[in-house]
Design goal:
Order of helices and strands of chain B: EHHHHHHHHHHHHH
Oligomer: heterodimer
CATH superfamily of the largest domain in chain A: P-loop containing nucleotide triphosphate hydrolases
Structural class of chain B: mainly alpha
Shape of chain A: globular
CATH class of the largest domain in chain A: Alpha Beta
Helix content of chain B: 55-70%
Distance between the termini of chain A: 86 Å
CATH topology of the largest domain in chain A: Rossmann fold
Largest interface: A-B, 50 and 40 residues
Helix content of chain A: 10-25%
Strand order of the largest sheet of chain A: 5-6-7-3-8-9
Radius of gyration of chain B: 20 Å
Distance between the termini of chain B: 23 Å
Number of domains of chain B: 1
Strand content of chain A: 25-35%
Strand content of chain B: under 5%
């Protein structure tokens, strides 16, 4: 077991601590007991002292070993229930690990949920101080950083308002501002960015970039592969509690998509989709969004035209292949789907080894949400012979001024005329 | 959020090793709760006093006019109010602690912090409450002709002993509640029984045959000692402390042993459960 330097204050920590790793995980396992009966009573225990109630063991994390270096932006990806959040909670010290060794060097701040301990009946002023103390600052430090926190949250005029009168957006801003002021060496981030509007998400990402540049270690758990590819230095893929891949974010993201894709094929009733391991006749290499000016974007304002771009490589000669694109919103609802077949568009002849970029420009009348793009390519003809599909390959955050509750906001005008 | 526990024992525990953070968290949680109770409504302080005062009023009327409990006890109303306020502190600390971990589930599942902070902060909030209520008690005593005496210096010690007992039972109940959800009704009944077994509405010295057993109960011993220290007697009606009433200073070791025993048991059980509270809740 290594000696660990105690690091009481942020700020001094980076030079005080010379260990090359920030987190060292060795053969860590964590399982949960799932009792067959949710709650036990003392009465039962007294009346039937020998009856042992049964339970199942869920092995949430199994034999995971990894060293996360100082200053690394490390991604943990995996499907729902793959154990990534459990691992993060073990790192955060919320769950006790069952087996293995786990060492964290330096001050660690978990962003598992924003605004933990916020009390709706107290003012923002009180809550900021309480939350900062919860997150590990002393009272003195919390008071010293108070102004910075409020400035970042841009909530100065609402300081003495009770939190129950805050909008959810204001709450998130306040909570995030406190959390980043805690200035830990190691940040654990668990998809907290799924909340808040698109412009705030962008602000969060900017902040994480800044923290990364200042040498902080960041462990990031997410489903969003574009974020993994954009930010992470390294990533690992968990599946059923085991680490099945570790390495380049792009490669890990590809494997993640394959697992998700594999599951989709497995669930497809007609077996029309190709087998995941079979050599593909056409392969989708990447997908992204572009602005009107041709720049790659991850966020767009409502009303600005956008272009969906998909890069495809061909491994056998194809005549008029069909390219499809599906946009799903946060709730998984398909809000828009189109393909070249719908317009009976001849797409041309492609030779093996050739690549092509397919662009689809659309007027962005989508409402504020996170949209994910699923591109597909199929053999010409009926379109049933799908050659490649990549679930949620790229995401786009759309932000706008009005929240209407609808999935689109079509250009429209009113006319009211008395008769 | 400093983490320097390595290896297999990595995870949450009851105390952890950052004493300053432990204290500041306990204090923060307790003052927040206290603030919410009092400043939630403009008359917050009055409301927190009204309940014990009403209880006092009813008991006083019923037991002095119907059963004449306080006959021959100097300053019986002052004794009754003091006992009720102290009892309120005890029952508040213990019964609020039963579901305290569940109430803080959000914190427990999302943050690493020494788990013992929660039962301690519940006790501290009740202690703040007791302090404000004691102001009313002292005013009531002065109005009733009880004047300051050296014995008052003993009161903080007695309150401390009561707090140790209450927090000890509180730790035990909160940790048990994670496993057994029927702790709530069980404690309700048990604390009712304890109320009648303790000399809150009567004075221990009135029941001579019963004294030896009754004062084994630490609350009875504390209330009896409080009577002697706070109010005292007159030459005609002497009031004896717990030692004299029990018949020997050595016998005080029984209630004292129970107080510290309850604390150690509560701590031991809580400490054992602490690492897995977040997942078992």
């Amino acid at each position: 077991m290594q000696a660990v330097t105690e690091t009481p204050f942020a700020g001094q920590v980076l030079d005080a601590d010379r260990s090359p790793s920030a987190i060292s995980i060795e053969h860590v396992s964590k399982s949960f007991r799932l009792p067959h009966q949710r709650y036990h009573t003392l009465k039962e225990r007294v009346l039937h002292p020998l009856r042992s109630s049964g339970y199942d063991v869920l092995r949430a994390v199994e034999d995971v070993s990894i060293e996360i270096g100082r200053g690394e932006f490390f991604g943990i990806v995996g499907r729902n229930g793959s154990g990534k959040s459990t691992l993060l909670k073990c790192l955060a010290g919320i769950y006790r690990i069952d087996e293995g060794d786990l060492t964290v060097y330096g001050r660690l701040s978990p962003f598992i949920e924003l605004g933990v301990g916020f009390n709706m009946d107290l003012t923002a002023r009180d809550n900021v101080l309480i939350n900062a103390i919860m997150l590990g600052l002393t009272r003195k430090e919390a008071r010293a950083r108070f102004d910075q926190i409020i400035e970042f949250a841009e909530l100065g005029p609402f300081l003495d308002l009770k939190l129950k009168n805050y909008s959810s957006g204001m709450l998130v801003r306040l909570a995030f501002s406190v959390a980043i002021q805690v200035d830990a060496d190691i940040l654990l981030i668990d998809e907290v960015l799924a909340v808040g509007d698109a412009s705030f998400q962008q602000k969060c990402y900017d902040e994480f970039e800044r923290l990364k540049r200042s040498g902080r270690t960041i462990v990031f758990v997410t489903h969003d592969m574009s974020a993994v590819e954009r930010f992470c230095d390294r990533a690992m893929l968990l599946e059923r509690g085991r680490m099945i891949e570790l390495g380049e974010p792009a490669a890990v993201a590809r494997s993640y998509r394959q697992i998700n894709f594999g599951r989709l094929i497995h669930e497809a009733p007609n077996g029309a989709a190709p087998h995941a391991d079979a050599p593909k006749s056409a392969e989708i290499l990447s997908a992204w969004f572009e602005s009107e000016a041709g720049e790659r974007i991850v966020a767009a304002a409502h009303g600005e035209p956008c272009t969906v771009c998909v890069e495809v490589a061909f491994h056998e000669p194809l005549e008029d292949p069909i390219f499809g694109m599906t946009l799903r919103n946060d709730t998984g609802a398909t809000v828009f789907a189109t393909s070249t077949a719908l317009e009976h568009l001849p797409t041309g002849h492609f030779a093996p080894g050739q690549t092509a970029v397919i662009r689809m420009r659309f007027d962005n009348w989508l409402t504020s949400s996170r949209y994910s793009l699923t591109p597909s390519v199929a053999r010409g003809g009926t379109g049933e012979d799908v050659l490649d599909v990549r679930e949620d390959m790229a995401t786009l955050l759309v932000h706008g001024w009005h929240f209407t509750g609808g999935v689109t906001n079509l250009p429209h005008s009113f006319e009211v005329r008395p008769r | 959020m400093t983490t320097h526990v390595a290896g297999r024992r990595y995870g949450p525990s009851a105390i952890e090793d950052d004493a300053r953070r432990f204290l500041s968290l306990t204090l923060t949680l307790a003052t927040t709760d206290f603030k919410l109770r009092y400043f939630g409504s403009a008359l917050g302080y009055l409301w927190s006093l009204v309940r014990p005062l009403l209880f006092f009023g009813v008991i006083y009327l019923v037991f002095t006019t119907v059963f004449s409990f306080g006959k021959g006890v100097p300053h019986y109303p002052v004794y009754l109010l003091t006992s009720i306020i102290l009892w309120t502190f005890f029952v508040e600390t213990t019964s609020n602690n039963v579901q305290s971990l569940l109430a803080r589930e959000g914190l427990l599942r999302k943050m690493r912090f020494p788990r013992l902070v929660i039962p301690l902060s519940v006790g501290l909030t009740s202690l703040f409450n007791l302090a404000t209520n004691m102001v009313a008690v002292v005013i009531f005593a002065l109005v009733n002709g009880v004047y300051p005496r050296w014995g008052w210096l003993e009161m903080p010690l007695l309150i401390l002993l009561l707090a140790i007992l209450a927090v000890g039972i509180g730790m035990l109940l909160s940790a048990l509640y994670v496993r057994y959800r029927d702790i709530q009704p069980i404690w309700e009944v048990a604390s009712q029984a304890l109320f009648y077994l303790s000399p809150v509405i009567y004075v221990a010295a009135q029941y001579k045959s019963f004294i030896r057993v009754a004062l084994v109960n630490p609350i009875a011993a504390i209330l009896t000692e409080m009577h002697a220290a706070f109010i005292g007697g007159t030459p005609a009606h002497p009031v004896h402390g717990a030692a004299v009433t029990m018949g020997g200073t050595v016998r005080l070791l029984i209630p004292l042993g129970l107080i510290f025993g309850a604390f150690l048991l509560g701590f031991w059980v809580f400490n054992r459960e602490a690492p897995r509270i977040a997942e078992n809740l």
